[in-house]
Fold:
Amino acid sequence: MSNDDGAVILVSGGMDSATAVYEAMDRGYEPYFLHTSYGQRTEDKEYACAEALADEVDAAEFLRVETGHLSAIGASSLTDEEMDVADADMESDEVPTSYVPFRNANLLAMATSYAEANDCSAVFIGAHSEDFSGYPDCRPAFFEAFQQVIDAGTKPETEIELVAPFVEWSKTEIAERGLELGVPYELTWSCYRDEEPACGTCDACAFRLDAFRRAGTRDPIEYAERPAFD
Structure:
């Protein structure tokens, strides 16, 4: 593979997608950032983090797309203000209220369009194994099926690989890999509730804090509440 190959990376502003950026670059890809705002509570903070990361790595392009239809459809505590963002239950295997119905299919469709238009040879997404039980569109079977969609729905000469490098990894393994690659985690954001400081108690905060603890380091961002173990 040539270092001139481009990869579209779905960059939310969070730690998983930031690590996916550095993983793609480590594999020799030039990063094309795709960031979407879909009415989530922390969209301004997430956008600022994604933009800062794009500047940090000198991304080939940074495309921000407004996907308000996901907010209009609703049925997620991330987009519906009448639904509360629940505190973390790290033992639950139920689909959480933060699930945005079929979000990854929407985002990957846009990423595939962006990749084909720019002759990129890959699309990266930072989904991981601890999302399996909660989010059905983060499972290996979903990505395998979507690869078939890409193959069937693009031009005959188009070859785009859907890469979910962490799909079998834990969040701790992602943190460890990111620390190895030098990911600037101070430029990332994971909280579902607040734009600053992070709440420390929602699912996203709890899993993130636990990952850094298990990786043997302290999460560099500010929290309103940190668990006693941190």
